[in-house]
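Lecture 7 notes. Example A: sequence first, then its structure tokens.
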Amino acid sequence: MKQLEQEIKRRRTFAIISHPDAGKTTLTEKFLLYGGAIALAGSVKGKKTAKHAVSDWMEIEKQRGISVTSSVMQFQYKNYCINILDTPGHQDFSEDTYRTLMAADSAVMVIDASKGVENQTRKLFKVCVMRHIPIFTFINKMDRESRNPFDLLEQIEQELGIQTYPVNWPIGCGKEFKGVFDREKRHILSFEANNGQHEVKATEVDLHSPELDGLIGTENRNTLLEDVELLDGASDAFDLKAVQEGRLSPVFFGSALTNFGVEPFLERFLELTPPPLPRYAGGQEIDPYDENFSAFVFKIQANMNKAHRDRITFLRICSGKFERDMEVLHVQGNKKMRLSQPQQIMAQEREIINEAYAGDIIGVFDPGIFSIGDTVCSPGKRFEFEGIPTFAPEHFARIRHKDTMKRKQFVKGTTQIAQEGAIQIFHEPFSGMEEVIVGVVGVLQFEVFEHRMKNEYNVDIIREGLPYQYIRWVSKSPVPVQELHLSSDTKIVQDFHDNYLLIFTSEWNIRWALEKNDGLELAEFHKE
């Protein structure tokens, strides 16, 4: 038991979230550099070279230089075993991103110092708040011209509704970015550029040291002294409980590209962020230190290895220890099984593992039996983790196959990709039409869907955009759904679990439906 407890206590499992181009993938790579997991950071933007970011593996990602699917990476740093869930930041991200946050115990929010809080950050932040998980903020790109740090903090507080606590404070920005002041240790970390290599030369100097002027310049020193006085007078004391409940975000400033401030951030973050948190199953708390193994499915990815046409299911371990070839119960399928080829995945690199602990993410070969949200546990302990919500898609299209002879492949492809959660598929229950309506969270998913249907299932599709922007699950209806009073541009659809939904072109139509149908209840999220 002692070893189990020690192993679980050193686990840290977190997601990195941001708007596109805020530098999230670069920050992830720098973490991997510090952990010795990679020897060279591959620039994401360097499309002309053969270096692609370690965490991007899908062909379409390499072509575009962006992260489309969520990657999972594990590495060791000092005495910690770290699982990073790298989520897509692209504005055309998918529901996969939301689900990945369900597997994390905390989140690192990366914000561009010149742009501040952006649209995608708001959406991802909402999901973190829904789960009350700790959120740490890294204000990146201080090596470029940036907004006033006080304005950035104010914007985070106003737009995201969370209090902030600057753990360090930047000295200058752009070419004048000289380092950061550590508020707890009361000293300055002055950085020297080192071509983005693993180690950045950092000099620690006391705030009142005579050599400070020579390091950061008199003007920077005077500004810093004023800022520190203002911070100490105006900001609340640091409250770890508020951080752990997701009400206060510790804020760090730095530059992932030049490595300025990355290692101090990583070290402080690992101290403050919690080890694996308990999960809930039917109102019962599942303790991570319980010796019985349990896990849930948060991601399914088909065809990661084109040569094998495989399907990998990603499990977040919630309690106990996993051992290769152990017998487990798949609760939803009510079936005992052995999880074959358990793997840890570093983007495309895979390693067969013999053991893993609560907090770890493992990939297992899936013959097609798992669904998102399924529970796997020790055979003697039967329970179901609370389901992962299905998030409302915002873009819709009607799709059909060009070649009528390929109906079978079309059905297989749409069903499998929908099971992974990248798209949602619907049909019109009372129309007699065979066409499928696809809903996605971000429009890039349509392209990914077409690309995969053609390359993995050999099916060309015809896609016709639909004007709908809002979808609601019908949680309660006063009459049979087909008898509801609805505006002409509202459509009734069913998902593949046969739940009824309404899709609308505007918020006005949603209000109209609720006003005209007394007793109708609609939901924005849905749990199976």
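Example B, a different protein, same format:
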Amino acid sequence: MTAELVRGQNHPLSLSRVEIRVSAGTDVLALACACDDEGRLTGPDALAHPAAPALPGLTVPGAAAAEHRFAVDLDAVGPAVQQVRVVLVLPPGGPARFGAVPAPRLAVADPEGAELAGYTLTGLDAETALVSLELYRRQGAWKVRAVGQGYADGLAALLADAGLPAADATALAAAVSGGAAREGHGLAPVPAAAATGATQALPGPRDAGPAPAAAQPTPPAGTPAPAGPPEPVAEPGPVPVPGVPYPGTPGPAPADAAGGPPTVDYVHPRRRRTTSEPPEPAPAAAAPPAPGEPPARVAGDATGWSMDERLYNQVWGMFEDLARTVAAYRSACDFADSRLERELDEVLSDHRHRLAGSGDAARATARARREELVAQARAALDRDLAQLAAEAEVVEPALPAAYARWAAPVWQGHRVPEEAPMALRLGDLHLPERPGLRIPMLVRLPLERGLWIDNGRTGSEAAMAMDTDRLRRAAMDTAVAHAARMLAVHPPGRFSVHVIDAAGAGAAALAPLVHAGVLAAPPAVGAAGVAETLARLTRRVDLVQMAVRAGAPEDLPPDLDTAEQLLIVHDFPHGFDDRAVTQLRYLADEGPAVGVHLLMVADREEASAYGPLLDPLWRSLMRLSPVPDDHLADPWVGHAWTFSPDLPPPGGLALEEALERAARARRHARP
């Protein structure tokens, strides 16, 4: 039976030899890109097109047509190729946009002709080039994903977005168009080497070169140009478990070798120009501002296929704008200070200022110039901060439950959703220039890294000032809040929570989860409970990995819980022997790829008895704090951001009501 995919959905392929079928209402060119695991071309010769139709393992059609069929041998593609992307392009002289023709449909079939998966590209408008399907490796097996990424600026924009320099992308797009025109007139295609100067051999791993510039919104006035932010990965949507989460959504990176703070990277989809219409209507445009007034803010005015994605992108944009506008202010202040220091040195070195008090006047003039520069920078900063604060006031009330604070009204009428969210709020971030301006810290789901909530008194001043018992309780309350939010925003049966509380010290904090009946099993206590829980989750990781590698996830044992799994470990390393520590490290390393995630509540100092064996475990987790702490840095200018956890308000019932709804939904969903 054919699996009909929607945008972002994937489907396993149990065969290495498949046939790609394209049906369109007009003539189109069918191309293929050989990409690395980040979706980037390794060079112009990694594109199969009419002028150079062959790549190892596949040969694309040589002319534009309304119907295409071509075979792909996935065993024959090079080891450096992690993705094979099928691209559709409108040829010269054809329709001006895909929105003017019937929706194209693509299918992946077996060698006998039976369709395995199909995808219809709906909602198109001004696009002239599309990334339609993607065959990609995961854990040694192949899958197909429905992408549906459109480009109104044509093939050149698509190739530039895939990593080619702008000049090479333009030249290659021209060669493809020229080859298509010659094919249409019955002439021989131009060899790829003649068109682009490239050879036909599939290259090795991509050289690390600069990424093409993505279309960026205008930053606040006075914001410096970015020094080189990391190239994030845009993905169309989450992939269900069992299987593998979509790539490219790491959390904050570990501290670098120099000991600097980890960067916050939750990951921002590139603000490139993509014109595929989102399935949900965009928010209404605000009225034009009065002369001299800043534009009115609208929640969800960023790009994205859904309102949740637009809000996610908008939050990231606010985070980026705040980082850069504060960087501009700090840079201006540094310049003013250095200029003052230089001018004072000049006054001291000039003998004319040593008499009649003229030196005092020169020094006063220099200080006045410094104050003037700082005042100008502060005025620009205040203006930009006021605009961001106005945007935050509009965006915060519009956030869905997965992104919203626990105190937000959205939780009062929250219902367990039918689809998993794309991101989750862990807390807030702010800078000392405007402590009241809080930016939500969102992480993409499924988590690609576990979480570590530090309950030790070796972090921030707030932690040092707290009583040890209160700090440990705050850390466990933070873990419970994260677990409750994950349960509340996932569909019934799609998320399970396990707890290891070997000494039973977290019973009070765990009471809401236990009383609601949302845990997969009672909290594990003692060494026997630790061993049994770790063995069960380790078995799940092993079985899902084997099923994925064999291309047969449907053959998993019927008693295996295929939901996403979260393991909360409290009071580590109490109750852990060497075998348990090894299993925990295995879950931290291998679990996220197959839907098993770790949430540690521990004091690293207490676990130091295990020595360097645990260092890889700590480095692989995203460190959070139960109290405000400035241990995170942004990926643009490296500000030290203060992270504050988001906890339910004292005396409120938001968490308990969310857990009760989740428990009720789970009971009703059971057969």
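Note on Example B: Residues 307-405 form one domain. Residues 182-260, 263-280 have pLDDT under 50 and may be disordered.
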